[in-house]
């Protein structure tokens, strides 16, 4: 998913928006978390181009993967918008009432993802937070990249802090955030 997102970002930088959309769609097929980055891709593109046309090209590029998504989810889970979280084994859910995800982040989990010694970005990958400072430049490209990458990280943090299995098992660092790293 991260490699496909990197390809999408590369094509975004090159202004090859159909390929950007295609790679982004493939990334979303590989990791549902990519969908949390999609709105920031649109905002960053509009910020950079000040035109709706590139957004149409991104959508055209992502359309084939959206069809695959709809087909797969219909066959596997009963409907195009039915997510697999509905079918989690109750033994996997930690202290929830059975409704996962909640779509409201847990503040303690968010703090653990940012600063905790197990999976916290500051502890496991401090270079991420420092490198994002470089995206605050004055050019449209730097600002657009900042919107996409910092906004994408915020979206993924929101999603990650909203699910029961936020820890992603026995991994080093915040696995569900690796897409944006």
Can you walk me through this structure?
This protein is mostly helical. The longest helix is centred in the middle third of the chain and has 25 residues, at 53-77. The model is unreliable at 95-99 (pLDDT under 50). 29% of the residues are buried. The N and C termini lie close together (11 Å). The chain is flat. Helix content is 57%, strand content 0%. It contains eight helices and no strands. Helix 3 packs antiparallel against helix 8 (140-160).
Beta-strand segment tally:
0
Helix content: 55-70%
The average pLDDT score comes to 85
Shape: flat
* Oligomeric state: single chain
Q: Give a short account of the largest sheet.
A: none
Q: Return the structural class.
A: mainly alpha
Strand content: under 5%
Unreliable spans are 95-99
Compute the number of helices.
8
Q: Give the H and E element order.
A: HHHHHHHH
| Estimated radius of gyration | 17 Å
Report how far apart the termini are: 11 Å
Keywords:
8 helices, mainly alpha, about 180 residues, about 0% strand, about 55% helix
Topology of this structure?
Elements: H1 2-13, H2 17-30, H3 38-49, H4 53-77, H5 107-115, H6 121-124, H7 126-132, H8 140-160
Helix pairs in contact: 1-2, 2-4, 3-8
